[in-house]
Amino acid sequence: MQNLKKVAAIHDLSGVGRCSLSVIMPALSVMGIQVAAVPTAVLSSHTNGFGEVVLKDMTDYIHPALSHYKAQGVDFDCIYSGFLASTQQVDGCLEFFKSYPNALKIVDPVMGDSGRLYKTYTSELCKRMSELVSAADIITPNLTEASILLGVDYPVSQLTLSEVKSMLVRLSGKGPKTVVITSVTMADGKNCNVGYDSQNNAFWRVVYEKIPKHYPGTGDLFASVLTGGLILGDSLPIAMCRATSFLEYAIKTTFGYGTDAREGVMLEKCLPMLISNQCYMDYSAI
Ligand code: PXL
């Protein structure tokens, strides 16, 4: 019997707008990875552009779902968390981590973007997110979230190489061995995703072309493709290339069609690229 790798994805399910589980599940599935969704909330849409959303908090669901899996002997290769709807859900994620000590623990500390917190995030929830980050093997904040975790202002100017490395190292100092920060503009004007593998003291960056439009859910997709790559045996720079190239392709495809940005990227058109396992980007050691 050949078992596929299995991930418990602790994220919200948003109806309209292609983010969180709506994109995480198809992306990991086409990469050949089984996903068990553990919804933190069910929303009519993401919280970024469709007015007053309907939100059903699923805090009461997480612990009983975990108990069920443990009772049934269900195993996971990876626990991957994202958008949380309450501070108690941090405890739910930590319980998952404790229950599956051999699983890869990936935390996408979803809290905000473009220098702003998402509407439902309180400072208490951000504090607890920092605690969750400490228990992770790998974290994937964007620059906004990295700044929140470090307690510094969102940078108004481009970052030098030493500033970027310092952020990566300080985040890793909180616990995670591997840190990837997305959406960084560096002093040479390049837009990039940067990574740090503390075990090998290696720093990487992957440069992409920036498109002047913001699509929700791109951070979720990036973290999912990175997660999928790492689970299937990619090294950190190769997983970063795979995720960055897929996102650049998805964003450019969507921009070319001129669709409403609130709807997210046209994932349905782009999934074949993930199936074909293509990864055309270049990385550099920094
Ligand atoms: O893509 C991050 C995200 C996830 N979940 C919900 C969101 C957002 C970003 O806006 O609103 C509900």
Q: How many E-type strands?
A: 12
Low-confidence stretches: none
Specify Rg, calculated over alpha carbons. 18 Å
User: What is the arithmetic mean of pLDDT?
Assistant: 96
CATH topology grouping: UDP-N-acetylmuramoyl-L-alanine:D-glutamate ligase
Bound compounds, please?
3-hydroxy-5-(hydroxymethyl)-2-methylisonicotinaldehyde
How much helix, percentage-wise, in residues?
25-40%
Physical arrangement of strands within the biggest beta sheet: 3-2-1-4-5-8-9-10-11-12
The second-level CATH architecture is 3-Layer(aba) Sandwich
Question: Considering the protein shown, what is the CATH homologous superfamily?
Answer: Ribokinase
Outline type: globular
Distance between the termini: 42 Å
Strand content: 15-25%
- Regarding CATH, which class? Alpha Beta
Q: Give the helix tally.
A: 9
SSE string? EHEEHEHEEEHEHHEEEHHHE
Q: What is the topology?
A:
Layout (H helix, E strand, L loop, with lengths): L5 E11 L4 H10 L3 E12 L9 E3 L1 H13 L6 E4 L6 H12 L4 E4 L4 E2 L2 E2 L5 H12 L3 E2 L3 H8 L10 H13 L4 E8 L5 E7 L4 E7 L9 H14 L4 H22 L9 H9 L8 E2 L1
Parallel strand pairs: 1-2, 1-4, 4-5, 5-8, 8-9
Antiparallel strand pairs: 2-3, 6-7, 9-10, 10-11, 11-12
Helix pairs in contact: 1-7, 1-9, 2-3, 3-4, 7-8, 8-9
The chain binds 3-hydroxy-5-(hydroxymethyl)-2-methylisonicotinaldehyde.
3-hydroxy-5-(hydroxymethyl)-2-methylisonicotinaldehyde binds next to β1 and α7.
Report on this structure.
The protein is an alpha/beta fold. The protein has one domain (5-285): 3-Layer(aba) Sandwich (UDP-N-acetylmuramoyl-L-alanine:D-glutamate ligase). The chain is built from 9 helices and 12 strands. It has helices spanning 21-30, 59-71, 88-99, 123-134, 143-150, 161-173, 218-231, 236-257, 267-275; strands at residues 6-16, 34-45, 55-57, 78-81, 104-107, 112-113, 116-117, 138-139, 178-185, 191-197, 202-208, 284-285. Helix 1 runs parallel beside helix 9 and helix 2 packs parallel to helix 3. The protein is globular, with a radius of gyration of 18 Å. The model has no long low-confidence stretch (mean pLDDT 96). The protein binds 3-hydroxy-5-(hydroxymethyl)-2-methylisonicotinaldehyde. Residues 12, 14, 19-20, 43, 46-48, 83, 110, 118, 216-217, 219-220 line the site of 3-hydroxy-5-(hydroxymethyl)-2-methylisonicotinaldehyde. The site of 3-hydroxy-5-(hydroxymethyl)-2-methylisonicotinaldehyde (PXL) has 15 residues, from strand 1 and helix 7.
